[in-house]
Amino acid sequence: MKKALLLISIILSAASALRAQEAGASVYNKSARKTSGVATGNLITMDGKDSVAAYYVEANVLMNMKADEYIALFGLAHEGLTVADANQKMDAQLKQFIIALDGLGVKSADVFIDFIAQNRVYDYTSTSNTITEKLSGFEVKKNVAVRYKDKSLLDRMLAAASRVGIFDLIKVDYILSDINSVRDRLMEEASRIIKKKEESYSRLLGIKLRPQGVFQEKYNAFFPSEMYASYTAFETGKVVDYRSNTNVLQKRKTSTFYFNPLSVSEFDSVVNAMEVEPVVQCTLHLKVRYTLAQ
């Protein structure tokens, strides 16, 4: 029982995030940092009618990975009096964009055109005191997915897209070509940590454990597109002498975004140091069940 109580009292150490004393405009951001989503620290339960204690040793590992390639998704939309008219405008713009991409060295095999929707468009007309809704035309929507490896190519693609009237960059996906090797590396590191903890409990605390099986194994991946936080930084005054017939005209405040990765303080180990550029963050939570060795 003393050993059980001692095991419960163990506080697992985690790598502490080093924080600079300087703070930028991100301090105006009120949203919480995204977490890996796993609950850690439950290291003992009572199982069965005889209340047999089960003990757990766990590891939480983070691996930062640069993408092997990227997929940029551009959105296009055109209206016309007829479907044929809308499609004609769409095809002309797509042709110009594909020619521009070819000039940047993008192969046709790396471009995919995805048909999204074909909608009726309605508008209103008014005569005397009657407002009537009527069909005014059609709208065609398509997406263009472009695969590329050179990250600097995106700026040139955006410039080429704007020259042909495409201004909607929907998203950029980060692709890892060999996710299996990433998971293998995570499992190796998590297993090493669990064995090290097991040895430390025995050597430092005299608690000897016998493994029974894997209780939980949870992989996850966090991509840059879902790890950006937004903020609006400004200070403003107060209108003190305010009357009901006074109009207050406010300035538009600019909102922006920044990459806000997972905090390393959640993890026992971090494989690959954080890069300056946004990366894919892969995680593994591994929890192994033990009994006390007799």
Number of helices: 4
End-to-end C-alpha gap: 13 Å
Give the DSSP E fraction (strand runs of 2 or more residues). 35-45%
**Low-confidence spans:** 1-21
How many domains in all? 2
Q: Give the SSE order as H and E letters.
A: HEEEHEEHEHEEEEE
Question: What is the overall pLDDT average?
Answer: 86
- Roughly how many Å is the radius of gyration? 28 Å
Summarize the structure.
This protein has helices spanning 2-8, 83-103, 153-163, 179-205, and strands spanning 44-47, 52-65, 69-80, 111-127, 130-148, 168-175, 209-222, 228-232, 255-259, 269-271, 280-292. With 294 residues, it is α+β, with helices and mostly antiparallel strands.
Structural write-up:
By secondary structure, the chain is of the alpha+beta class. The protein folds into two domains: 10-67 and 177-292, no CATH class; 69-175, Protein of unknown function (DUF541), domain 2 (Alpha-Beta Plaits, 2-Layer Sandwich), CATH 3.30.70. Helix content is 22%, strand content 39%. The protein has four helices and eleven strands; from the N terminus they run H-E-E-E-H-E-E-H-E-H-E-E-E-E-E. The chain has helices at residues 2-8, 83-103, 153-163, 179-205, and strands at 44-47, 52-65, 69-80, 111-127, 130-148, 168-175, 209-222, 228-232, 255-259, 269-271, 280-292. Strands 1, 2, 7, 10 and 11 form a five-stranded mixed β-sheet that branches. A hairpin with a 2-residue loop joins strand 4 and strand 5. The longest helix is centred in the middle third of the chain and has 27 residues, at 179-205. The two termini are 13 Å apart. The relative contact order is 0.26. The model is unreliable at 1-21 (pLDDT under 50).
